[in-house]
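Our consortium's second objective concerns turning raw sequence data into structural hypotheses that experimental partners can test. To show how far this objective has progressed, the report includes one record in full. It was chosen at random from the queue rather than selected for favorable results. The single chain below, 631 residues long, was entered without modification.
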Amino acid sequence: MAVTETLKPPATEPAELIWQDGVPESARFGDVYFNRHDGLAETRHVFISHNRLCERFEKLPSPGHFVIGETGFGSGLSFLTAWADWKQQTANQKHTVLHFISFERYPLTREELKAALSRWPELAPLSDQLTSQYPPLMNGVHRLVFEGGRVRLTLFFGEILHGLKQLPFFADAWFLDGFDPQHNPQMWSDEVIESVRAHSLPGTTFATFTAVGRVRRSLEAAGFEVRKLPGFGRKREMLAGALTTDADIPAPTIAPTDPVAIIGAGIAGTLLARNLAERGVPVLLIDKAANAGSAASGNAQGALYAKLGIEYNAQAELAATALSFSQRYYRPWKDDFWHPTGLLQLATTEKESERQRKFCDRNQYPEDFLTPVTARQASELAGIDIPVEGLWFPRSGWLEPAKACARLATHSLITPLFDFEVQHIERLESGWSIQNTDGTHQHVSKLVIACGHQTAEIAPVTGTLRLKPIRGQVTHLPESTVNPPATVICGSKYLNPVANGQATTGATFDLRNDNPEATAEGHQENMDELLRMLPNLPATGLPSAEDLNGRVAFRCTTHDYQPVAGELRTESGDKVEGAYLFTGLGSKGLVWGPLLAEYLGDLLCAQPPCLPNHLTRRVDTRRLYAKREIG
């Protein structure tokens, strides 16, 4: 049953399976996903043994990383097998990282993945984690993180050639997988093999179950030394080999061993600090406040929410990717600072209703990511009367941002330097000197500036960075005065479920107001908009604006309202060696933060990036200078 023509973005076409005695077979390609008799043994024979992975894992320096590329993810069996051996061979190497990068045009659903992997109970501790984190079936790149950051799976759903062109990485070993070349010739084309070669270094190994002459000749033409070896079971032969060249093998890049300074202990800075620490990188976390999460990240509650564009372009893709990643990232913190209640985005005006109608007409997101709901369905989900239709995000919810920052900053490799107000940053021959207002200095090899709109004041560049603060005031409503929702509700304002006796609503959007104190006018604006959105909300009469409490934070945004993460550049485009920016997250820091911290962690540790090329351009720091085109 071909459904490609009816799909709208970003949905990807799932696999079509025929099950024979518990073994999945592709209806499209007429081939099995793994050996009927012993798929695990075949995987070990072909991919693990002939890439000499156990030996290479054991010898990997710590900190360090190893990259496996795979041309067909299928049931995930090869990934789980490599993960299991990695875990065993590197048990004493705390800060080594396995990157597994795999491509899949027709992915299995979560339920199909569970069924396929249930054949190997010995892998259940790992397969349960994989199926739990398995992403929604959306085209593009999905990063999954396991073992506290020691295993990173980058899944690309879509055409393999497109994925190989978009993802910049070099593999240490290749699993050339996929269905039989006779049934799936596209996967084994000369163009794919050439692209595999382009993602390989001298000495990169490969192994494949096939011994078809056309594949062997294509690999040899690309520069691989190819050996024909005994296959597994009834397969008489297989191929394995390595990329040969006269060039010297480059020295492996490893994570920095000197401390990295992160200036700013809000959600961006603490997420990045935690990400680096889990990769074995020591961090100096610097902030002028007395503790983490004191500025824009200090609100009592924050919604995990992204408003996706009508057209599925790069901006919408980045937002959807970030939202999906953040939902996975916060899961271990459930019932601590993360509360996955689900989230409703309501069509509270005629304009928003029309926007959502166009959005649903032009897009097709998986139901486990978002789904349209009627007013009645929304009311049932929220547990209160909702007068309008909307969109339901079942895996979203709300966080306690200040608590999140404090938890994230607690790690043996993170050294907090609070009450440290940066006065000056100076480039040294060996790195950077960061001067406090009291005259003391910290010397580091690399630094990341993640201090919101104050980034522009201290960044060591001469050009003007286009960053601006936006005042946002939230209002705290006493629990006794409202019918509290069971889910987060977003519209012209947002309303979170009750926590600690109050529900948070807001926030104002004040472009030209620098008052740091909450005002009655701000509270009144929040209440007026909230009652227009939810007229049946009050359980009793709401307090007067003068009697309400709240909080003001200044969110940092860019001229194009898109975040910034990457290497700092000068106005002329030159790299400022060892300096990075992480800012401009606006009111969506809880959504943008985890993915962009992962991306910066990849950059700082010289590991394969979690963002494809066209999305790295969306967050490039050079955008901050006026009239600059990013190529």
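The partners drew two points from this record. The chain has a mean pLDDT of 94. Residues 53 and 478 are 59 Å apart (CA to CA). Both points have been shared with the crystallography group to help prioritize constructs.
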